[in-house]
Amino acid sequence: MRALEVVDLVKEFPTGYNLPPNRVIEDISFEMDMGDRMAIIGPNGCGKTTLLKTLATIYLPDSGSIKLFSQDMLKHRSRARKTFSFVSPSLNFQSKLTLSQTISYFATVLQKPPEIVIPFLKRTNLYKMWNSRIESFSEGQKAILRLALGFLKQPKILFLDEVVANLDVSRKESVINIIEEMEAYQDLTLVMVDHDPYVVDRLCSKILVLKGNGTVHSVSSVSDLMNKLHYNFSVDVTLKSDIPDSKALSISKAMRKNNLKVRYFAEDEKNLKSIINKLISLGPIIQEFTTSSVSMRDVYYLLFEGGLDEGDV
Fold first, then answer.
1. Which positions fall inside the ABC transporter domain (predicted)?
2. Does 226 score more than 90 pLDDT?
């Protein structure tokens, strides 16, 4: 069953009297089946969060259509909003309320039993703050609370806007595990914006890549996107002292250099071995280097952080 169908979506913002509007997203089309997990990725300023907010009816599009489970979302916004949650760092809380009071308030508004999120709060270690005021919460704890409120609605679709960005490693891992479990249990459809390729790699099966002008670069599965990379291996190098770019390029032209950090990309084991041998020949100028298979992190490097052409994916 189609969970989401987006056709020719356009969103503009006014720029001033008698000035043309700023078109942030343009002619975006894609579709998702129930249970799909999709990440929206792209360079800074390409309209990722704008697209997510438009899908969640926070912004209304200037043209195009959005269907949620075959229903026109824009014509039936109230009905549509009962089926999804939008979780964003912009959600603030009444700082003098306790965690218990905050959960109780939102549960009353949503007409849901507060007990729904207790297991989540316990798994993420936030339940110990049950009687503490929100003003004592760290940013990471507030991020956990926002996600808990998203789950409280028991949504069919979850829109996530960088919800784990402020979490430490252990809490981030707990949240990822819980989202994976919820998706498997409830057939939850997930649409997320996140700059962390590890999070995208763990949670998402599809990728929507936006260009800098707010248009679609590609929509594909994670596996298809990885298969389009010309490279199978990467080599991360830490230098003891800087070297000229020409010397770094003599190792391999498929590289990205940032001061004392150099990242090389190898097409196959023969190419990888050549890079390693050349690095060894540089001797004491190399502090250390590590090799690994390419991952979603490399997609981010290749597309958004320069040093290689967009044609690589």
1. 4-237
2. no
